Amino acid sequence: MTSLLDAHRWRRMGWSRIALYICLFLLTVHLIRTFSSNEVETIVAESDNGHYFPWYQQAHVSLTDLKTNKYTTTHLSTKERQKLTNNMIIKATQAVEDEFAQIQGIPGSVFKTDAEAAQFRATVDCWTRGHWVSVPFTKGMPHFQDPLYGSCDRKFAKSNTSGQRDAVKYVWESQCGSTGVEVDGENWCKVLRGRHVLLVGDLVHYQLHELFLDTLRDGPAVCFGELNCKDHTVCTEPFMETRLRYLRNDILSVRRKMNANHGHPKADVIEWPFTSASIMRGYPIVIINRAPVLESDESFIHGLIETLRVMRKGNPKALLIYRSTGIGHPFCNEATGPLKEPLTDEALRSLPFGWSEIGRRNAMARVIVEAAGGLFVDLAALSDLRPDGHVGGQDCLRYCIPGPLDSWALILYKVFLGLEGHVF
Questions:
Q1: Which SS3 state, helix, strand or coil, does residue 376 take?
Q2: Whole-prediction pTM
Q3: 151 φ, ψ to 5°?
Q4: What is the pLDDT of residues 269-328, one digit of tens each?
Q5: DSSP H helical segments within 197-276, as ranges?
């Protein structure tokens, strides 16, 4: 009888127990969601070391995992990073002091003395210092080459069939003021004087290849890939024939053979040989750049010195131009215009992929390049202020054409005219 009463009591309490379990389950789910929400908010609040980049339209998860490397200095304070930069500039100066002592002026130009070279270098620096100004309508440089860099126009046309892309509506105004100069392809060919041009550097450096072709040709040139684009004729009669070639070598290594990965370039760091005697003699103008591959500062210094030593040995009279390396802009799709001021050191320390160290590397490169009689052109000073205008998506390093790179072309045009004595 007692057992029957207990079973009856259990059946009467069954629905109550089920309701209780349901309430407990719902309460647990609510607590988990609340905890998860708080955790996400915490991650967002701590994203990018507490700094939101000026172009962000929403908070993003921290990029810390992408910038953790033994060669980065993101753990140092701004004062400590500046001290390190000063020390490495001194170390680079000492390391290169005796290597190119015999070089005077800028070989391959009209500047034969160090005093003349210093004055022109100061002028070029002035051209790369300034800010972006909005112009209601500006004629962008026509683009005939790789369709990837013209993709922004196609994307824009799908959403708006009138006007221009916002990224095209800005022009660079230097501290020296506007000169009213426009790129003149014929005049550029005139000052090149039949000297063939070799471009060697990282993947972004390939965009210089596009700029030269867009400026000096009136149609597309066939180029298969971005590793080794063979000669293109960029100047013809009535001017002396001039050719352009691009080779990808991310770290400007002096290897003579592609001996890695069974004779083929690796996917991470490309080191296409370019310092053979025939190449050095065949291209009197060489424009180079070294990618921000993560390595020690000492390795960077000694590697670049060795590269320039080999290049000078191969062609002592070659005109060497070094393009500074720029940063990328994470989540660049959210950017709507240029930055008014350079990023703070706090923001730079939040950048991934070793971009936090680029400023120091550029400072060291300037010392070494100028000691070797080269010209350091700080084009990064322009592009670092342009989080907008990138190809976008996963590519927040390269830019669409036309866009911010139009001003790169203008400055390079002025540089080549200036090297022939036509200083503005």
A1: strand
A2: 0.85
A3: -65, -25
A4: 888 999 998 999 999 999 999 987 778 999 999 999 999 999 999 999 999 999 999 999
A5: 206-216
